[in-house]
Amino acid sequence: MEPLIDRSRIERLVRTTLKELGDKRAVDDGDRGLLLPPDRGVNLDAFDPDAMAAMLRSTPARIGVGRAGTRYKTNTLLRFRADHAAAKDAVMSEVDDKLVARLGLVELTTRAPDKRIFLERPDAGRALSDEGKQELADKCQRGPQVQVCYGDGLSAAAINAHLEAFHGALVPALQARGLRVGTPVFVRRSRVKVMDEIARLVDAESCVFTCGERPGLGFADSLSSYYIYRPATGATDADREVISNINPRGLEPTKAAVAVAEACARILAAKKSGVVL
């Protein structure tokens, strides 16, 4: 399925048009709501303006947006709907095939044959398909110290936006620490727990699985990176660790990749991961 909307292309067209019209909103100030008036801290009279300014700097959350009676004001409602649309697009769109090919990732599939079943049946995204298992056996090396995996998770937008930078930094960071890296794979329509099966099938000492986070009403392009030491059949979330909020406004992808590499070196040295550490 193609993305419902190419947001970056539309934004470029809008900015170009505004620039031609001499509109100051053509300046790229990082505001996602290009045509929507600002609402945070301007729709109400703050009791303490300095405190309000500090709060606005500390979070992108919807604070200080004011109200009209019992309802949101128009600019807040429009921003809310725009963010909701971006979140839906992130979930429903697909990771770019060309990106996967360009990075040389072996593509695997899960037991979820399409997006609808993937969303309705989380268990289907936690196990490889028979074809996926065969691809893994045919194309991936066995016995690595770190098996690198990527998945679309719940935001293909995050993978499309940040995977190239993250992957480009992760593998060198792992190798710089003297770790043997397995054949990197991309698992389409996947959930986090599929990493356990992959690690067992290739006999990996540890495994990293990086995927798109569930979008919020603010960020739809954030990654999470999970890592685990020798996951047993009954491994739970308590056995794995995670670095989340990986995006340019949170933990920048290349810096996050270095942090993940450091974490992998740590769990390999300790020979365990999760709450036991």
Task: Output the keywords.
6-stranded mixed sheet; Rossmann fold; 2 domains; 9 helices; DNA Binding (I), subunit A; 277 residues; 6 strands; alpha/beta
Question: Care to describe what's here?
Answer:
This protein is α/β, with parallel strands linked by helices and 277 residues long. It folds into two domains: 7-92, Ethanolamine ammonia-lyase light chain (EutC), N-terminal domain (DNA Binding (I), subunit A), CATH 1.10.30.40; 97-276, Rossmann fold (3-Layer(aba) Sandwich), CATH 3.40.50. The chain contains nine helices and six strands. It has helices at residues 7-20, 49-58, 74-92, 97-102, 115-120, 130-139, 156-176, 194-202, 253-270; strands spanning 106-109, 146-153, 185-188, 206-212, 223-229, 240-246. It has a six-stranded mixed β-sheet with strand order 1-3-2-4-5-6, with helices on both faces. Helix 7 packs across helix 9 (253-270). The protein is elongated. It starts with 6 loop residues before the first helix and ends in a 7-residue tail after the last helix. The model has no long low-confidence stretch (mean pLDDT 90).
